[in-house]
């Protein structure tokens, strides 16, 4: 198919050539009327040339319109093909938030045919509790003049299928058109599996933290039990040692004063050790 670039008619050389041709025609017409008395045939020739130039201009205009019309149809067909083959759901609504485009991925995602979705309100795909807020957010986005942005950065967005089930989505919105004919396009993706994975990971992490806390608690309980057992056993051994020392002191000869003094010191040390073990 023949195509014409839009910049061709705005090229300086084309503009200059057109201006020169127009100037030449004007000069030819002025000269023809100036020489009309001397050479009447010149006026006829100039008029014929004028008619031919007007005809050529009309044909050129019609050709350009036809070429651009065909190219526009081809571009629209390519765009429609891209939208229909997209893996993500694509929904376009007008300023009243009525659906004007609903691609194949959106049909599969929501369980609704495009014929049934187009012309209807976008609210049918939004859970009841979010509809008022969503409508206000879209209107606010239209007033900002921002061409596109991601939706729901801080929260999880939810959509509604035809059977009434809700599912989480990621979405971005863009706008275009004239102020009086504004259109909004939402590109969305079903993230149910990712949400389930995140919830599972979060639950497993919580269970791991709880298990770690229980292990730490059991470890502390085991330490306490071992310490108690050691404390009791140490107390029993010290008590037995003190009794043996008392028995030994009673049987020391009276003249063994040095041994008696050492035994007395050992008894005092044992008493202090017993008191310290009771404080543990």
Question: If you had to describe this structure to a student in words, what would you say it looks like?
Answer:
The chain is of the alpha+beta class. The chain has 7 helices and 6 strands; from the N terminus they run ααββαααββββαα. Strands 1, 2, 3, 4, 5 and 6 form a 6-stranded antiparallel beta sheet that branches. The longest helix is centred in the last third of the chain and has 59 residues, at 192-250. The chain is rod-shaped. The model is unreliable at 1-9 (pLDDT under 50).
Termini Cα gap: 98 Å
- Considering DSSP H and I runs of 4 or more, what fraction of the residues is helical? 55-70%
Number of helices: 7
Question: Radius of gyration over alpha carbons?
Answer: 48 Å
Q: Give average pLDDT, whole number.
A: 77
Shape descriptor: rod-shaped
Structural class: alpha+beta
What's the layout of helices and strands?
Blueprint lengths: L11 H23 L5 H46 L3 E6 L4 E4 L1 H7 L3 H4 L13 H14 L3 E4 L5 E4 L5 E13 L2 E10 L1 H59 L6 H23 L1
Antiparallel strand pairs: 1-2, 1-6, 3-5, 4-5, 5-6
Helix pairs in contact: 1-2, 6-7
Protein traits:
280 residues; alpha+beta; six-stranded antiparallel beta sheet; 6 strands; disordered N terminus
A few lines on this structure:
The protein has 280 residues and is α+β, with helices and mostly antiparallel strands. The protein contains seven helices and six strands.
């Amino acid at each position: 198919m023949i195509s014409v670039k839009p910049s061709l008619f705005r090229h300086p050389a084309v503009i200059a050539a057109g201006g020169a041709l127009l100037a030449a025609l004007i000069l030819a017409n002025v000269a023809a009327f100036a020489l009309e008395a001397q050479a009447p045939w010149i006026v006829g020739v100039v008029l014929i040339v004028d008619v031919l130039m007007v005809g050529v201009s009309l044909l050129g205009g019609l050709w350009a319109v036809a070429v651009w019309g065909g190219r526009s149809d081809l571009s629209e067909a390519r765009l429609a093909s891209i939208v229909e083959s997209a893996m993500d759901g694509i929904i376009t609504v007008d300023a009243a938030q009525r659906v004007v485009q609903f691609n194949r991925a959106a049909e599969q995602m929501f369980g609704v045919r495009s014929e049934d979705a187009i012309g209807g309100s976008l609210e049918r795909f939004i859970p009841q509790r979010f509809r008022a807020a969503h409508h206000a957010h879209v209107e606010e986005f239209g007033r900002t003049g921002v061409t596109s942005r991601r939706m729901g950065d801080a929260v999880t967005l939810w959509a509604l299928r035809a059977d009434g089930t809700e599912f989480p989505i990621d979405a971005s919105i863009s706008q275009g058109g004239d102020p009086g004919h504004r259109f909004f396009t939402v590109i969305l993706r079903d993230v149910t599996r990712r949400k389930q994975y995140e919830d599972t990971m979060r639950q497993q992490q919580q269970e791991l933290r709880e298990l770690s806390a229980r292990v730490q608690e059991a470890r502390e309980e085991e330490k306490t039990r071992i310490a108690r057992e050691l404390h009791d056993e140490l107390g029993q051994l010290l008590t037995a040692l003190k009794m043996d020392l008392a028995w030994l002191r009673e049987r020391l000869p009276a003249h063994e004063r040095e041994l008696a003094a050492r035994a007395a010191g050992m008894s005092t040390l044992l008493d202090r050790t017993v008191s310290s073990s009771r404080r543990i």
